[in-house]
Amino acid sequence: MYIIIALLIFAPISGEISMLKRTHTCGELNKSHKGKTVVLNGWVNKRRDHGGVIFIDLRDRYGITQVVFNPEINKFVYEQAKSLRSEFVIGVKGQVALRPEDAINPQMATGEIEIYVSELEIFNPAKTTPFEIEDNLEVNEELRLTYRYLDLRRPKLQNKLITRSKAYRIIRNHLSENDFVEIETPVLMKSTPEGARDFLVPSRNYPGRFYALPQSPQTYKQLLMVAGFDRYFQIVKCFRDEDLRKDRQPEFTQIDMEMSFVNEDDVIDTASQLTAKVFSEIMDINIPLPFPRMKYKDAYEQYGTDKPDLRFEMKITQLNSIFENTEFNVFKSVLEAQGNIAALVVPQGALLKRNRIDRLVERSKELGAKGLAYFKYQNKEFAAGIAKFISDEEKKQLTEQLALKEDDLILIVADTYQITFPVLGQLRLELAEELELIDREAYRFVWIVDFPLLEFSEEENRYVARHHPFTSPKPEQIDLLDSEPENVTARAYDLVLNGSEIAGGSIRIHNRELQKKLFKALKISDEEAESKFGFLMKALEYGAPPHGGIAFGLDRLLMILTGSESIRDVIAFPKTTSALSLMDNAPSEVSEEQLNELRIRVF
RNA sequence: GGUCCGGUAGUUCAAUUUGGUUAGAGCACCUGCCUGUCACGCAGGAAGUUGCGAGUUCGAGUCUCGUCCGGACCGCCA
Questions:
Q1: Nucleotides of B under 7 A from a protein CB
Q2: Could you check: is the Cβ of residue A556 within 7 Å of any atom of nucleic acid strand B?
Q3: Closest residue to B38 by CA to C1' distance?
Q4: CA distance linking residue A41 with residue A115, whole number of Å
Q5: Phi, psi of A446 (to 5 degrees)
Q6: Helix segments in A304-452, DSSP class H
Q7: CA of A132 to C1' of B27 (A)
Q8: What is the CA radius of gyration of chain A?
Q9: Does the CB of A106 fall within 7 Å of any strand B atom?
C-alpha cells in the first residue's frame, strides 16, 4: 500500500519513467553494431550545425560518438536539436549507421559509425562554461579549481583519476593476496609532539582539549602488530599543517604497511614487489628486481640529496684532497674549518651565457652557499672564474678526476658539509632540467639505506629523529646513543624514483627499554614520554613482536605514473598553494553558536 | 614568515623603449545563412569597474605604496 503511494508521488518527479536510458556508452559502438537501435547519454561536446543537418559529438567518460540530426529522418527531432549547445546533457535514441566512405574519421575510436537520431531528450541545459571542456587547454589554474567539476570533465584529468582508482584496486588485491589485513585507524587521534604541525579538532565534550588529525597512522599500526595482526595495510589520508608545494598537499594519501617478524630486507622486498606490480599493471612496464641500493652518505656526497635522480649522471665530486695545499684563500679557509670543497661538471656548460652563470651564482646564494666558484675547460685550458687561482698540479689532478671534456663548465662550492653538497645537488637538478639531460622515458628506482638515526636541531638545541622516534637504531650501535648520537645509523629505508621519494619506512623499536633510551637521546623527559607515548610504551611491555613497515606517498607515485607536473592533477579536489579550496571556499568562518558550543573564542 | 613571476572581454593574450584620442585580436558566445562536418564554413553582433584600495600627475592598464588571489621557490614538511 505505502509502496504504491510512494511510487505515485515520486515517479513523476524522478523522471525515471520517461528517461531515455543508455544502452551503450559513447566509446563502444563500431561497425559491428550497424543497424542496431541504441540509446546514448552524455554531454554535448561539440555542435556542428550545417543548416540542413546537425552533427553533435556526444561525450561521456568512455569516449565520443557522432550523432546526426536530419530533418529527413525526423523533422520534429531536428527542430528540437537546434537548441542544443555545448555541455547540454542529453539522451538520444537512434540507429547505428556506417558513415559514408569519405566521412570516416580515423582519429576517432567510433569514427566509422554515427547515430541517426529519432528521439531526443534534453535532461539539462547548460550555461556557457567559463572555459572549454577539452584537453590541452591553457587556462588559469585558479579558474580550473573554482570550477573543478568542469575541469574534471576533461578526459585527461578523468583518466588520471581512473588510473588512481586502478592503482587502489591493484594495491588492495596484491596486498590482500599476500595475507595483509586492511584495517582502518582513527582519524581523530591524539596530538603528537614530534614532527609536522598537527591539524587540531576541538572536542565538544571536553572543552580545551583537542583531537589531532593523523600525520600518519604510525602508532596505531605498531599497536596492531602488538595485537598480532602480523601484516597490516591501509590506503589512508594523512594530514600535515605545513606549507604547500607542487608535490605537497595538506591532506594526502599513503599506502601504509606494517609487518611483524621481519628485517629491513623483508620490508624492502615486499615494497619492491608491490611497486613492480603497480608498474606492470598500470604502465605495462616490467621493472627488474631487486632495485639497487645506495647508502645515504653516498647519495648525499654524490648527488647532494637523499633522493637522487638517477636518470642522468652529473655526479658531484669531492675535491678536498686536491686542494689540500691550495693557495687560494677561499678554499684554504674552508678546509681549515673542516669544510668541504666539491664540484659539479656541467657538460657544454662553458657555452652558457655569462648572465646565466651569474644567475647560478645567485641561485647558490639563495640556497645558502656563500658563493659559487667556477671555471671553464676550453681548448684544454682552464679559463674564466677562478682559473687563475688554480695551480698546474691542481689542474692536472682536476682534469683527471673530473674527466674534463671540451666546453665543460665546472661549478665549485666550498662550504660546510651541510651546505656544499645540497647546493650542488640542487644546481645539478636545475641544470639537468634546463639542458635536457633527463631521460623522460626512464624509471630509475633506488633504495636509500643507512640513514643517520638522529640529526641535531639548532632551533630546538637537541637531537631530533630523522625519520620518527620509533625507528630502531642498528643493534650494534645502541651504545653509541649516549656517546656519539649523531653517528648512530637507523634501520630505515626510502624508496626513491626519478628523484622523488615515493616511500619510506623503518624497522621499529619493539623493546620498551630501548624506546626509553631513544626518548632520552631526544631529550624527551620520562614524564613527557609517559604522557605523549605512554600507551605505546605500555604496549611494548606486553609481548610486542619485532616489526617494521613502510608507507608510500600514493599521490607522488601517481604523479609519476600519470606524468603530472603537479600533485593537484592527481587529486580530485585539491587545495591551492595557500591551502584554500577555491570551489567551496574552505576554510570558512563558522557561526558564533558553533564556536560557543566548542568553547572557542577567536581573536 | 620570506623572495620572485603573474592578475586586462567568458577565455588566451596584446596595448609601441619613456604615462597621452574611443583598451585591440584569436577562440568561445549570440543572430542570420548553409545537407557531410568532425578545429565545419560565410556574414553580422554583443561583450571591459584593466583583481581591489590609496597615491603621484593636467592625464594611470602603464609609475609608487598597500592589500587580496594564483603559481614557483626558500624556510617549514618526524
A1: 1, 10-13, 27-30, 33-41, 69-78
A2: no
A3: A105
A4: 12
A5: -155, 135
A6: 329-336, 354-366, 392-401, 417-434
A7: 10
A8: 31
A9: no
Report the distance separating Cα A67 and Cα A74, nearest Å. 13
C-alpha cell at A444: 630509475
Task: Please name the residue ranges forming H helices in A15-137.
Answer: 75-81
Q: How many CB atoms lie within 10 A of CB A106?
A: 6
Å: A138 CA to B46 C1': 25
Q: Is the minimum distance from the CB of A140 to strand B below 7 Å?
A: yes
CB-CB neighbours of A436 under 10 Å: 9
Contacting residues for A527 by C-beta, under 8 A, at least 6 apart: none
Q: Estimate to the nearest angstrom the gap between the alpha carbon of A471 and the chain centroid.
A: 24
- Residue A424 to residue A115: CA distance in whole angstroms: 61
Q: What CA–CA distance (Å, rounded) separates A6 from A14? A: 12
Find cell 651546505 and name the residue: A419
* Residue with smallest Cα–C1' gap to B71: A577
Provide, in whole angstroms, the distance separating residue A281's CA from nucleotide B12's C1'.
38
Q: Which residue is closest to B40 in terms of CA–C1' distance?
A: A48
Single-letter residue type at A536: L
CA-to-C1' span, A129 to B24 (A): 24
> Mean pLDDT throughout A421-433?
92
pTM, rounded to two decimals = 0.92
pLDDT in tens, A449-496: 999 999 988 888 889 999 999 999 999 999 999 999 999 999 999 999
Whether A191 sits with its Cβ under 7 A from any strand B atom: the answer reads no
Asked whether the beta carbons of A246 and A555 are under 8 A apart, the reply is no
ipTM value greater than 0.90: yes
Cis peptide before A473 (omega within 30 of 0): no
Residue type, A385: G
